[in-house]
Design a protein that fits this description.
Layout lengths: L6 H28 L4 H10 L17 H14 L1 H21 L2 H12 L5 E4 L15 E5 L2 E12 L6 E7 L9 E7 L5 E6 L10 E12 L3 E2 L5 H37 L1 E2 L2 E2 L4 H29 L5 H26 L9 H11 L7 H12 L2
Parallel strand pairs: 1-4
Antiparallel strand pairs: 2-3, 3-7, 4-5, 5-8, 6-7, 9-10
Helix pairs in contact: 1-3, 3-4, 3-6, 4-5, 4-6, 6-7, 6-8, 6-9, 7-8, 8-9, 8-10
Length: 379
């Protein structure tokens, strides 16, 4: 494994880091406090090519590799986890799903405007009664000539409240359980498609997370993504990619919290000297730095394996599991280093602490990641 970044990867790191520091960091606390999506920054990221970073150039994307992608997500997450996960969903779940499984017509109609950032996408899998167990999806799609009539609802959908294009998963044959799931591309303007309740979240409050409702929505057969019954395969493939993005997000959250704690420890004076001179603080910082580096290397390994076209389910699960638990651990310690100030919203580590927890939950909980890993090593 070559740990030396290419010139292009370093350029992407610098570009995203500069943008994150100049445009994202100054408003990160505000969008968290108000629970608003930074649409102006989304437009700026589209201009930079970040919303189609990994899409092939032939479909108006940036053509960047998987390592460049995780670098970009980490740099954004260091200052704002909400901004990072928005970019991750657009790239790894929506754009990548259409590029990998879509027809040429679908790529022309949907992927190109998504890659250019003219359209925003969402990935609608989770339901009120179906989270990790997708075989019990209740949203149903019944074919009626050249359309499918879809009824049901989805829950906890990132970007759901304003997405122009939704990749929707529904049962076309409930008797087949997970083998009866089919994927569809649904447009915002389709009659019967409505946005329901918006969630009031603990963390990543600068994102929109909404319920989606489908009431006799008529979706053309031409908008089916791959063949009937292929939805589960699409889901598993895209979740592997999504887990690499969440791992990168978790690494970024942890890195941001660690850097804040390190700086604070040099400035905070107690008992006549900076607290970084106390062994208790030094050991916390040492453990934080070590765990973050290990999480980053696991994430890079998963990204590299994805890039080479090898199966990477185990590697993605390992990266996501370790990085997310590292983020929770590191942000907890960062608050501790700050003491009482760390509990206050004026300090970024308080937000980091809240943001970190979701990385252990979405794209499959830590328990699910352990199941994936165990199945792989026990074959």
């Amino acid at each position: 494994m070559d740990l030396q970044l290419t010139e292009e990867q370093e350029m992407i790191r610098k570009m995203v880091r500069d943008f994150a520091q100049k445009e994202v960091a100054p408003i990160a606390a505000e969008i968290d406090d108000k629970g608003v999506v930074p649409f102006e920054n989304i437009k700026k990221m589209a201009h930079l090519g970040l919303l189609g970073l990994t899409v092939s150039e032939q479909y108006d994307g940036g053509g960047a590799d998987a390592i460049s992608y995780v670098i970009a997500i980490e740099e954004l997450a260091k200052v704002c986890a909400s901004t990072a996960i928005f970019v991750a969903v657009q790239n790894s779940l929506v754009c990548a799903g259409i590029e990998k499984f879509g027809t040429e017509e679908q790529k022309e109609q949907y992927l190109k405007p998504l890659a250019r950032g003219e359209k925003i996408g969402a990935f609608a899998l989770t339901e009120p009664g179906a989270g990790c167990d997708v075989s019990v999806l209740q949203t149903a799609a019944v074919r009626d000539g050249d359309v499918y009539v879809i009824n049901g609802s989805k829950r906890f959908i990132t970007n759901g409240g304003f997405a122009d294009i939704v990749i929707l998963f529904a049962q076309t044959d409930k008797a087949q359980r997970h083998r009866g799931i089919t994927a569809f591309i649904v447009e915002k303007g389709f009659e019967g498609f409505a946005v329901g309740e918006e969630e009031n979240k603990m963390g990543i409050r600068g994102t929109n997370t909404s319920e989606l409702i489908f009431d006799d929505v008529r979706v053309p057969v031409a908008n089916r993504l791959s063949e009937e019954g292929q939805g589960f395969k699409i889901t598993m493939t895209m979740l592997d990619a999504g887990r690499v993005g969440v791992a990168a997000q978790a690494v970024g959250i942890a890195q941001g919290a660690y850097e804040a704690a390190l700086q604070y420890s040099k400035e905070r004076v107690q008992f006549g000297k900076p607290i970084c001179q106390f062994q208790a603080i030094q050991w916390m910082l040492a453990d934080m730095a070590t765990r973050i580096e290990a999480a980053r290397l696991l994430t890079y390994k998963a990204a590299l394996q994805k890039e080479t076209g090898e199966r990477f389910s185990k590697e993605a699960a390992m990266a996501k599991l370790f990085a997310s638990e590292t983020a929770v651990w590191v942000t907890n310690r960062a608050v501790q280093v700050h003491g009482g100030y760390g509990y206050m919203k004026e300090y970024s580590v308080e937000r980091n602490y809240r943001d970190a927890k979701i990385t252990e939950i979405y794209e499959g909980t830590s328990e699910v990641q352990r199941m994936v890993i165990a199945r792989s090593i026990l074959r």
